[in-house]
Amino acid sequence: MEFLRFETVAREGETIGDLAYRRLRADIVNGRLKPLAKLKPDLLRGDYGASVSTLREILSRLAAEGLVTAEGQRGFRVAAISRADLRELADLRILLETTALRRSIAEGDLEWQGAVVAAHYTLSVIEAELMAGNRASVERWVRHDWGFHHATIAACRQEALMQTHASVFDRYARYHMLVLDFRGEGVAQQHRELRDLVLARDADAACALLVDHVQAGMDYVLATGMIPS
């Protein structure tokens, strides 16, 4: 499934550069590399197993994605975070995801519906673990939260839209990983309702719920007080 891009094990036929890119990107999105941390290629090569020139190319690519900032001759840093940036990402996610969701509901077939059900089932199991007190599942929850939302829009058949949404979603998810907390039954209930509305092909209600869902997630992260102004 698409959310496996978060995984950091080598894939068949993958180059050293490809693996280093995925691992470094995942470490930023997952919050292992903190905002504003310096990223020096000569120091990163030991951790990511790629040459200095390859790592410079990877860092430039991540800068284009908004996950890294280039500082001219001073090198690179992990992108900063701010409350304004999170609000902007939430608005952009809503714009892209509601557009994709409407198209997906209109064009999705039975196989797509089955994928939505399967993705939600996996997510619901992890949410049950979290509500039972297993806080170690938060990182898995973020990955499978992506898996579910991606499944709901996977039938939109707009590749550029999907790629842009994936990039924005990851930058939005980074804030949740830095807070590393779970919102509880409320978010699980919204996921169940979204699944049902998608399967019922009620695009208006599904998109309205999605807007509330994203905004609630943003408000929750902001309320922790961990995101600087």
TrEMBL record:
Listed InterPro entries: GntR_C (IPR011711), TF_FadR/GntR_C (IPR008920), Tscrpt_reg_HTH_GntR (IPR000524), WH-like_DNA-bd_sf (IPR036388), WH_DNA-bd_sf (IPR036390)
A Pfam family hit: GntR
Domain HTH gntR-type: start-end pairs: 14-81
Keyword Lipid biosynthesis included in the entry's annotation: no
SMART domains tied to this protein: FCD, HTH_GNTR
Single GO MF descriptor: DNA binding
Keywords: DNA-binding, Transcription, Transcription regulation
SUPFAM superfamilies to which the protein is assigned, alphabetical: GntR ligand-binding domain-like, Winged helix' DNA-binding domain
PANTHER family xrefs: HTH-TYPE TRANSCRIPTIONAL REPRESSOR GLAR (PTHR43537:SF20), TRANSCRIPTIONAL REGULATOR, GNTR FAMILY (PTHR43537)
Listed name of the protein: GntR family transcriptional regulator
Source species of the chain: Pararhodobacter aggregans
